[in-house]
Amino acid sequence: MFQIGCGTALPGIVAAKLGARVTLSDSEDLPLCLQQAKKSCAANGLGGMEVIGITWGMFNPTLVNLPPVDIILGSDCFYDTKGN
């Protein structure tokens, strides 16, 4: 399972607790967000969960080399054309 826009990672953590192999992702431009996702995982006994930074529309080696996934979980993903 791959969670896009994980934020604090709650949906991904629940999925992992239920037995899914989960990779969490959020914007690579928000390092504090990625750190918080890692802290959330650790607080829930999932310290080894993979958390990666991505940028919409950019295909970096980390993203391209992900293993195949059966489910992509999007949470609070939206696009604001005004850039607010």
**Mean pLDDT over the full residue set:** 86
- What Rg do the Cα atoms give? 13 Å
Characterize the main sheet. 4 strands, parallel
Low-confidence stretches: none
Give me the secondary-structure category.
Answer: alpha/beta
SSE series: EHEHEHE
Cα-to-Cα separation, first versus last residue: 30 Å
The multimeric state of the shown protein is single chain
Strand content: 15-25%
How is this structure best described in words?
The protein has a domain at 2-55. The protein has 3 helices and 4 strands. It has helices at 10-17, 31-43, 61-64, and strands spanning 2-4, 23-27, 50-54, 72-74. The longest helix has 13 residues, at 31-43.
Descriptive terms for the model:
globular, 84 residues, 3 helices, alpha/beta
What's the layout of helices and strands?
Blueprint: E1 2-4, H1 10-17, E2 23-27, H2 31-43, E3 50-54, H3 61-64, E4 72-74
Parallel strand pairs: 1-2, 1-4, 2-3
Short description:
With 84 residues, this protein is an alpha/beta fold.
